[in-house]
Amino acid sequence: METLQTTTLNEVYEEYNRYIYHLCLKLTRNKAEAEDLMQEVWVKVVRYESYVAQVDHLKAWLTTICMNTFRDRYRKNVRRSKYMMNQPDTLDVPVLDLVPNDDLSTEELIEKEDVAKVVQEKISQLDGIYKNTLLYFYVHQLSLIEIADIMKVSIGTVKSRLFRAKARLKEMVLSDEAATSAIMA
């Protein structure tokens, strides 16, 4: 295969379109869903077009995008179906009446706020690189690619920093008896 710097998106599409479609079909086991999934995958590829030249193994990169997109769709559908029952055509009750009430009790809200305060305090004590990585990923919900771009590092470095930050945060919480009792209560 030619170098990726000279590879255009059209060439990538021509070369891997059938592969991505068959992978989508294998994952969804439904032609219409496979086509929808494939469309989402190619939208993401176009969105991250600037990274194509940096990718060493294009097929693996495309496979990862496809798998992650499928997982995201699956999780979204599971969450949606968890809170929404199938409403028969003859049922007169509005659909929204079938959605369970997820309001937390006052006690649960206070407990949640206490845990959030402990975690925020511990995050603020982390080194700047680890703190920023956690905030970008969990608070701002940026992708690994976006974080790598902002921090001017590789995706592997972002993954390492996330892993180390979570390990350090866990260590800090477990070494603090007050924090541990607030979270484990």
UniProtKB/TrEMBL annotation:
<dbReference type="GO" id="GO:0003677">
    <property type="term" value="F:DNA binding"/>
</dbReference>
<feature type="domain" description="RNA polymerase sigma factor 70 region 4 type 2">
    <location>
        <begin position="119"/>
        <end position="169"/>
    </location>
</feature>
<dbReference type="InterPro" id="IPR013249">
    <property type="entry name" value="RNA_pol_sigma70_r4_t2"/>
</dbReference>
<protein>
    <submittedName>
        <fullName>RNA polymerase sigma-70 factor</fullName>
    </submittedName>
</protein>
<dbReference type="Pfam" id="PF08281">
    <property type="entry name" value="Sigma70_r4_2"/>
</dbReference>
<dbReference type="InterPro" id="IPR039425">
    <property type="entry name" value="RNA_pol_sigma-70-like"/>
</dbReference>
<dbReference type="InterPro" id="IPR013325">
    <property type="entry name" value="RNA_pol_sigma_r2"/>
</dbReference>
<feature type="domain" description="RNA polymerase sigma-70 region 2">
    <location>
        <begin position="13"/>
        <end position="79"/>
    </location>
</feature>
<dbReference type="InterPro" id="IPR014284">
    <property type="entry name" value="RNA_pol_sigma-70_dom"/>
</dbReference>
<dbReference type="GO" id="GO:0016987">
    <property type="term" value="F:sigma factor activity"/>
</dbReference>
<dbReference type="Pfam" id="PF04542">
    <property type="entry name" value="Sigma70_r2"/>
</dbReference>
<dbReference type="InterPro" id="IPR007627">
    <property type="entry name" value="RNA_pol_sigma70_r2"/>
</dbReference>
<dbReference type="GO" id="GO:0006352">
    <property type="term" value="P:DNA-templated transcription initiation"/>
</dbReference>
<keyword id="KW-0804">Transcription</keyword>
<keyword id="KW-0731">Sigma factor</keyword>
<keyword id="KW-0805">Transcription regulation</keyword>
<dbReference type="InterPro" id="IPR013324">
    <property type="entry name" value="RNA_pol_sigma_r3/r4-like"/>
</dbReference>
<comment type="similarity">
    <text>Belongs to the sigma-70 factor family. ECF subfamily.</text>
</comment>
<dbReference type="InterPro" id="IPR036388">
    <property type="entry name" value="WH-like_DNA-bd_sf"/>
</dbReference>
